[in-house]
Structure prediction request, 857 residues.
Amino acid sequence: MSIILDNVSYVYSENTAYQIQALKNINLKIEDGQFIGIIGHTGSGKSTLIQHLNGLMKATSGSIYFHGKDIYEEDFDLRELRNRVGLVFQYPEHQLFEATIFDDVSFGPKNQGLTKEEAGLRTFEALKKVGMPEELYDQSPFGLSGGQKRRVAIAGVLAMKPEVLILDEPTAGLDPAGRDEILDLVARMHREQGITVILVSHSMEDVAKYVQRMIVMNQGSVMYDGLPKEVFRHYKELEAVGLAAPQVTYLMNELKACGLNVDTDATTIAEARASLLEALMGMDAKKADFGGTPC
Amino acid sequence: MLRDITLGQYYPADSVIHKLDPRVKLFSTMVYIISLFCFRGIAALVVATIFLVIVIRSSKVPFKFMVKGLKAIVILMLITALFNLFLTPGKTVVSFWVFKITEEGAKNAALMAVRLTYLILGASIMTLTTTPNQLTDGLEKSLMPLSKIGVPVHAIAMMMSIALRFIPILIEETDKIMKAQMARGADFESGNLFQRVKNMIPLLVPLFISAFRRADDLAMAMEARCYNGGVGRTKMKPLHYEGRDKRAYLIVLGYFALVMVCRIYFPFPM
Amino acid sequence: MGIIRAKQLVHEYIRRDEEGNVESIETALDHVDLDVEQGQFIAILGHNGSGKSTLAKHINALLTPTEGSLWVGDMDVSKEENILPVRRTAGMVFQNPDNQIVASVVEEDVGFGPENIGVPTEEIWRRVEKSLKDVGMLAYRHHSPNKLSGGQKQRVAIAGVVAMEPKCIVFDEPTAMLDPNGRKEVIRTAHALNKEKGVTVILITHYMEEVVDADRIIVMDQGKIVMQGTPREIFSAVGKLKEYRLDVPQITVLADLLRQAGLDIPVGVLKREELLQHILRIAQVEKSGEVS
Prediction:
């Protein structure tokens, strides 16, 4: 099943001088088991969009269907929706509040009305998944490093066993190693548990490496929606709205423009390497004819 | 909700009132409030109304914008008016069950409602036309004599201006943490009072931690910029009176005198 | 003589329990030597906890050395009476743009530093205007900082430091909380201050792409300086950088992989244009090789 957004719009402070249209007629279908990246610069509406997916924000117009049910119906259980669509906010470590790591992570499962044992089991599993060493479970979350805190906070959402996991810039403020840890964790969750993952980011490089589908937001609308390589074909348009495609995309396109037969759809280093080696090593005189090119 | 309170929000415009020295505005607001509580009679009311209208007009703040600030305080006004309406002894006009409405009660209620409305409008004029920083500057300078008797006037003023800067940030942060905890199934709306208070912990603990972290960061940033208390500090925008400020003082004092004259000679009909 | 010199600088964070007994000692800086010339653009790289921010805070006299010494100009930072003059010489921009802006109006915030050091009113106005212009934020002088983007806020914070006319500015991870556009704005501003105003810049970051134009890069790990050199020298050691948990720009990694695959590409390729030229050169050679 899936989440469907039908013509969703959202306006902040409607009918006042400060009125801002944050979302404009969004139509999306999020299939089960996908790994989706949402890209857009600050203010593009991406954070507003994801808060609609678990009912934290209510669209000013349009409808959202979760497993075929309209979430704005009177009898729809929004809390149940939030249990099934987990949302990890930006800087999630800022929401930690319990005295121990274990208690903090079990906050979600406890709110779901699980028994103490069940909640404990889920907490245990979630902390295992994010790679927290067991001896830390009884310690205060506030003594951890930034990256560790964030993993605990993510575990807090994972412990609720959501079908859909949404992460709003989960790597903001982390160093490269911390960033890779979190992204690898998310990719593993997707691979092993088969849950739907929606990753909000402004790093094209991160997204290109992991996701299957990319949604580009600009000024409250969906600008592009497709495979990363399809989206990156529009690298010039992306740049015009303040987003940059991965560096290799530029390189490959420039090489192509100079007449070299390379794959311009390459978005990751591995793809670019393969394509470049093929073009350069197995050089075919017929294909690469750049006698008079101005490069 | 919290955003709707206009009281305390600066409305940028280019008007005489905006240009006045904050000390003049602080003083005038005080005088105006005092005048509201000692006027008597319809004549004084008319004077107070005309004065308010003129000030609002010359401040160039749209009246609509000001009224929005009143909305949040309507409940307070209703309660005060109701108390006055029912609890003032005097000549009974209407009565039902245990409630009695007296002539004096009705009069008091009406008067109280008017006073409160004017008071809030008057105070809003000050906050709408004065940036929080000007306001604290004004307070600092007006209260400076107190520092001679050991009151840390500069520190208090600095604290106020920092508080004003961080209130919007903390409001936003509250909203964010609340949503994040709701995403984890937190419930801030149901349960009895005790439960509700308990449910606030997941909101309050992170909020306090964040406030402390910000305070820590800010203290360091201020130190890095050579902040060293009020000693040896100069001012980018020092306060000094202009001709218009002196005229404003005279006008306000004139207004007050007029209200007092009305009170003494035309206390009719109240 | 350099503007900033550290000699065997050590800093230990000592955690004590309630009775005041030492619980743990964490060595954040471990015998660091540093010499920064006036007018240089220095980048300090390192993962979180490598000691780079601790070093930065010493330059601004926010921390004092446990051992060793640090001079800013000819002032020893551990001397109490030097604290204010040191802070006037070396300004600092912090990570979180919100938590370093004091005033509710942009221009008043920029004036905060000059007010603190007793600059006369007229001079404050001149400096505020000039520094807002330097960072390209003059148009926002009457705005509230709350309505600005992260990059803009950070530029206001920079203007606040510039208005104190320091010889050196330390940027402590100024871009960590910004989006790509904001990051570019800030780095561009730092370079402009360095080139046009001759301000010595010390940029602390973990984004490698921000340091390719630095004069010198210092890599820190576990409180020690582990690598030092020009960007090209540093970026030549892709493997070593990864060991220090640092990111290497895509282009540099790709160039390195191609070199390892046997292509004639030198080590330490920094920019896209460079790699482009190398690949085109190789393609030409290959082609002519086949023809002959």
